[in-house]
Amino acid sequence: QVQLVESGGGLVQAGGSLRLSCAASGNIFSGNVMGWYRQAAGKQRELVATITSGGTTNYADSVTGRFTISRDNAKNTVYLQMNSLKPEDTAVYYCNTHPPPSSVFYNTNSNWYWGQGTQVTVSS
Question: Quick one: pLDDT at residue 73?
Fold first, then answer.
């Protein structure tokens, strides 16, 4: 069974920093994309950042320049360094892994795995 275990969420003042970690285990394709999504209260889940197995990154416009995603392929772990946090960043953050777009498994929802979510709260 695939499992994603997150850590690092919490309460921080505006302008502060947090570092989220997510360790993946189970039968996960070595070429999987890993990333972070977030969902604020009453809103839809949105993409925050993704990173490919080769290190290519993609960020939401709202976090570009403030957040940095990275991964350690040997440890199957993905990180999200969040700097200059704003109250608007308050949300539940979810770790994700899924097949790359080039994979035949990309469009299968069951191959998109999610962590349990970790709360990030930024006070003004």
Answer: 84
